[in-house]
Design brief:
Layout (H helix, E strand, L loop, with lengths): L1 H9 L9 H6 L9 H20 L1 H13 L4 H26 L2 E4 L2 E4 L10 H28 L5 H4 L23
Helix pairs in contact: 3-4, 3-5, 5-6
Length: 180
């Protein structure tokens, strides 16, 4: 049974709202960042950052439409004008830290390239906070758009019931890395 589950899970196609190329072309991430690192990161952030904002019903509808190539004009506006901006900066925020680490068969370590100086811990935290602030700005913009236009997004306004349904976050404040 477990080998069957592993086989079926490995065949699951990753449906990405933004491509690694889009993130690299529209942020400070360098073009040589390996797509193999970015794809699972984007997938994870979609599920942990975007899904809670949209709610699982609207999120799943958007992914299904992307996969089928049938994105409605309403969802295309949502994606192009709101989701992509929040998502790309959250990817930068998360990649800033994980991009410096590499896990190999010898264990975990840091990476540094030839003729490349890594940031100090203070500089790294500063960069992460800049990206987090950008992501939070666009996250709030996305939330305000959905709240203003909730009658156009019925799965957002009236998500279905169920134990596995993620209801949309509403009135979420700015995130902070500090506990007050």
């Amino acid at each position: 049974l477990s080998s069957h589950l592993e086989a079926s899970n490995s065949k699951k196609e990753m449906i990405l709202i933004v491509s690694p190329a889009f993130v690299k072309e529209n942020t400070v991430l360098h073009y040589n960042v390996d797509d193999g690192y970015l794809k699972p990161l984007i997938d994870s952030i979609q599920n942990t950052f975007v899904r809670p904002i949209l709610g699982s019903a609207l999120f799943d509808e958007i992914l299904a439409q992307i996969q089928a190539g049938t994105v409605t004009s309403l969802n295309e506006t949502l994606i192009k004008e709101y989701i992509r901006d929040a998502l790309k900066w959250e990817v930068c925020h998360k990649y800033t830290r994980i991009g410096t680490y590499k896990v190999t068969n010898k264990g975990a370590g840091t990476r540094s390239g030839d003729n490349f100086s890594t940031l100090s811990e203070t500089e790294l935290v500063t960069a992460k906070n800049i990206f987090k602030d950008n992501a939070d700005f666009y996250r709030k913009k996305l939330q305000l758009f959905l709240k203003t236009n909730e009658n156009d997004y019925l799965l957002y306004k009236n998500p279905p019931n169920g134990d596995d349904v993620v209801r949309p976050e509403q009135n979420v404040q700015w995130r902070s890395q500090f506990i007050i």
